Fold this protein.
Amino acid sequence: MSVTSQHKLAENRPFDREAQYNAKRRAVIRSAAAAFRRRGYHNASMTEIAKSLGLTKAALYYYVKSKEEILFEAHIMVYDKMDELVKAVRGQGDTGLEKLQLLYGEFAHMLTRDGLALLTDIDSLNGENQETVLKRRGKIERAVTRLVEKGMADDSIKKADAKVTVFFLMGALNWLNVWYEAGGRISGDDIAQQFVAQMSVGVANPT
Amino acid sequence: MSVTSQHKLAENRPFDREAQYNAKRRAVIRSAAAAFRRRGYHNASMTEIAKSLGLTKAALYYYVKSKEEILFEAHIMVYDKMDELVKAVRGQGDTGLEKLQLLYGEFAHMLTRDGLALLTDIDSLNGENQETVLKRRGKIERAVTRLVEKGMADDSIKKADAKVTVFFLMGALNWLNVWYEAGGRISGDDIAQQFVAQMSVGVANPT
Amino acid sequence: MSVTSQHKLAENRPFDREAQYNAKRRAVIRSAAAAFRRRGYHNASMTEIAKSLGLTKAALYYYVKSKEEILFEAHIMVYDKMDELVKAVRGQGDTGLEKLQLLYGEFAHMLTRDGLALLTDIDSLNGENQETVLKRRGKIERAVTRLVEKGMADDSIKKADAKVTVFFLMGALNWLNVWYEAGGRISGDDIAQQFVAQMSVGVANPT
Amino acid sequence: MSVTSQHKLAENRPFDREAQYNAKRRAVIRSAAAAFRRRGYHNASMTEIAKSLGLTKAALYYYVKSKEEILFEAHIMVYDKMDELVKAVRGQGDTGLEKLQLLYGEFAHMLTRDGLALLTDIDSLNGENQETVLKRRGKIERAVTRLVEKGMADDSIKKADAKVTVFFLMGALNWLNVWYEAGGRISGDDIAQQFVAQMSVGVANPT
DNA sequence: TATGAATGAGTATTCATTCAT
DNA sequence: GATGAATGAATACTCATTCAT
């Protein structure tokens, strides 16, 4: 190996290290988030989380500052993804309804495919983090609300209380995490499709 | 002495005692359940629950055996009420859709009016209680599923995966507890009505 | 027992309770302070402190909020006593020297007789408590400094840097805790007497 | 090759290495000792010590076996120096008082000038090291005691309990580390001078 | 019935230390 | 010589639970 190539390697090392570190950190958060969803934030102990990653409890603290930080980051991870989806859908669809359908489908896909889960334990976060998470959630809700209102304006969506509509829709999504298991009888695609249909035209057969 | 007259006798000590005890016990469970919903099972301490009832922590143990028992009973209380509603609706409505609408409306009412809340922390229950609660939840889901299937059979409800449909509907209900506050801008009746409409015909305007 | 006397008892109960509680709390702090002095703040574990009081670790937390609180209160306890001594000596003695001798003697007595000890671990306190303790220490040092300066003014004390003089004197006191054991060969009275003589006229024999 | 020339040979690798190693090792111990004095043994973490030397925590272990070893060596370093001072003063001075004055002045100089500090945390050492340190401290105290007793014998020092006298004197020295900052308002020389005066003739003005 | 006092079991967290590279 | 990563052991602290009164 020439000195030059060795030098390059040495230059790459720190980047590799950092990349590795970040990858592992994300793995910790994802794995912990899954445990939180399955067993609840308090029922999932750090020991348990560590073991499921083949690490020891103390090693977790090399990647995260505290258990609460994991919870916080797990929340943020989802909201980042949702922000992305909101943006991705922005230019598409004509009517408010079409836009809403696209976004709602993406949300359902995210939850079934990407292993991301909407966590509900917000009270376990400290004041500041709690506020941040509520803000991020609010941002998503407002994005959806805007689509609903746009739909009401262009007559693609029925007039109703927009807030209640949005909560109705988001509730169904939240509950998804409780019952859906990847690799189960029904595919994520099918669920996303049915969710979009259900929220659009409901369960009733038109007469 | 007839049962009716017994009911009226305030001076009937033994009975009174028991009635009082039971009333207080229910109050403990209701109050605790509210705290669990608001703050989460683990974040709500026994001290906190006691204080909000004007009691001391130790006094709670006169009414309940353990914190877990409270959680269990709080679950059961809701499922008892839901069973009741399922029964109450049984004779009513013609089509599956109509029956489903009636029941769903009743469920929404229960959550907004009666101070009852669907708790999600099942993992904090011990094996036996967990199983019991899951059975009770399953029973409700099956009751709803039956109505959905009946509706599909009598063509009042669109063909689709019944399970997914039910989870979609139940999810929206579960989320209600997170955002709805009694005495807020929107009345429980209005919410119930909109929820029923939404689940029936969706958000899309027919073209 | 008459109802009246019973009533009186009931009235006394809370006071007794509170008095008992406070007494026990002080016992906890005193005992812990002794352990801190002997073994150092970090080497003395809560378990150890509890055991030496015939309690369990968790019981300590009924009386104090945290280990740090104990350290803080132990500091304050001493400074309260020293403030008292400063006040008690105020009217006595004519010259600055006489006043200083009286106060210094009292300080030495306090350390040998009352089981109070000057703790040095200030860095283990959080910012706020640290500041408070430093303020209290400063207050005592200033009181002593004033006497020294008064003595220099009335010519009972030799001119020199007052600060250094005070630190010299306080240092000897602080070290007392390290080597003096109650019930040892020398009585506290003798030590106090010799300390006063030593600081006044030094070790040198006048020629 | 003579020992002298060996000393001078900068290119003598193995020796150089060892000298460098030892120099670095001493730097580690000195820096750590300073941190121990400022923040306390337990409050000063290995990470912190390493950082202040521009090293990483793990690198420290190339120079020392354990944190406790640092504490031990830091103690020993001071006692070695004090032994040296005791020896240096041995031939000088006539009376016990004169000898004591010389030694005490040297001690004060050492603490203000040389960056050496008397550490008090002995309990954090293991049994064997603890014993060693106590022995070394005892040796110094005995050396001082001998001078005091010699002074009492030759009438240059007042009769009193020699032990108490020594502890009084050593206490003032120990406390020096707490309040003296190099480069402060008062020079080390001035402090040494005043300390010697204070211990000799006290604060009182002869009348 | 109710409470103050006490406990046991559990949990997050820290930190000195090790080791492969 | 030096470091990033990982560990084990210890420790403060919390909280549901108990019990004598």
Observations:
- DSSP finds eight helices and no strands in chain C.
- Residues 1-10 of chain C have pLDDT under 50 and may be disordered.
